[in-house]
Amino acid sequence: MWRVLLVEDQTIVRQGLKVILEQDPNIKVTHEAENGNQAISILEQHIIDFVLMDIRMPEMNGIEATRLIKRNWPKVKILILTTFNDDEYALQALKEGANGFLLKTSEPKKLIEAVHSCMNGGLTLHDEVAAKVMPRLLQYSEHPAISVELSQRELAITKCVGQGKTNKEIAEELHLSIGTVKNHITTILHKTDLRDRTQLAIFALKHHIGEQPL
Amino acid sequence: MWRVLLVEDQTIVRQGLKVILEQDPNIKVTHEAENGNQAISILEQHIIDFVLMDIRMPEMNGIEATRLIKRNWPKVKILILTTFNDDEYALQALKEGANGFLLKTSEPKKLIEAVHSCMNGGLTLHDEVAAKVMPRLLQYSEHPAISVELSQRELAITKCVGQGKTNKEIAEELHLSIGTVKNHITTILHKTDLRDRTQLAIFALKHHIGEQPL
DNA sequence: ACTTAAAAATGACCTCAGTCACTATTTATA
DNA sequence: TATAAATAGTGACTGAGGTCATTTTTAAGT
């Protein structure tokens, strides 16, 4: 039996949600709150497994509340339920650790499925929201292909430059002389058609050199 | 009526999918292919609205096929259907423009819903896949809060440094003297507790200075 | 065995970056 | 009004960054 906290400022909507959720025998709406502040104090006093949260609320909004809840009760699952197909909100909420994002236009059955999914470690995204959010996220994860061949040493040095290290620090880390590091950098700059170490650092970050490829 | 192409190497699975899909009156499985190559040649000869694609196939896999299809027929919707809850595949497929990603463990009804969602511009992600993929994507989109106050000028200069410009170039762009640019950079480096322009460039990229906030 | 390329190193050389001190104007706020 | 902060500038100094020529060793490929 999951103890659910409803956070929603409109009483009628709250009542409706309660009726829908309690059609499922696993769900028991044990508490209700009208805003983020109330939600926090309920969490401080009672054991809650799941929070169903509206975004736009007076006092403290859903994003803020999500942050605070996830900070203090990381195990509590949070599903965001909102009227607006707003990718900005969705992204913020997910960053704060929300376990799902549904629109109020969804069917009741979807809502219950989403609760189950959340409780089982899933993350339910409303299809339309996902379609808006994913392109933006994917754009950040793109690493342009490296068009030039860099040797292992050169990659190691490029990585260091991308971490903001000086030639001296790089020399020490790789057990080389400063002159050698300089020479390598000259070679790298020629190969990559870049001008100086700053541009090389930018190159390293954009190509995620030194990280696990996504 | 949506004309659907099934791409799946196992005949039995293909048959099963066809039966499931055609329970929906809007869906007509007009063509079938055993691998990516066959899929491409079918698309070249017939009008297709929707492709349901397996990932692991002989000859040409689903990712590759997705790329080629989206390149040549960008309007065709593609839903990936796979046995494996593999976030690596999911990410690649989505990058190539796939309109959804479902596991074969999903219920038949979900599959049909996903087709509808795709055709209406949605993007259906299997909950478990989403739970794996989203944290990785969000990590890239994180911009740590800027802990120091930078003035407008300082932000403008930081942005330029993050684009790999020299002091001279910055001076010209902002109609300042080189000396002034240097002075600003000294101030910025003090405020941000950084050492040189390379570290500042890294700072600028990590904080996405000069971009629209996500 | 011969060739090619990566890797390592040295020294000379020059430029740009960054610091510092000091000045001056504008703007906002206590 | 006085004070602080942002903005803009100059000149002098130091050092790190980057280039180039040249050498040596090692490893891989034909």
From TrEMBL, chains A, B:
It comes from the Bacteria. SUPFAM superfamilies: CheY-like (SSF52172). Keywords: DNA-binding, Phosphoprotein, Transcription, Transcription regulation. SMART domains: HTH_LUXR, REC. GO terms for molecular function: DNA binding. The modification 4-aspartylphosphate is found at D54. GO terms for biological process: phosphorelay signal transduction system; regulation of DNA-templated transcription. Residues 3-119 form the Response regulatory domain. Residues 143-208 form the HTH luxR-type domain. InterPro entries: CheY-like_superfamily (IPR011006), NreC/VraR/RcsB-like_REC (IPR058245), Sig_transdc_resp-reg_receiver (IPR001789), Tscrpt_reg_LuxR_C (IPR000792), WalR-like (IPR039420). PROSITE patterns: HTH_LUXR_2 (PS50043), RESPONSE_REGULATORY (PS50110). This is DNA-binding response regulator. It comes from Oceanobacillus piezotolerans.
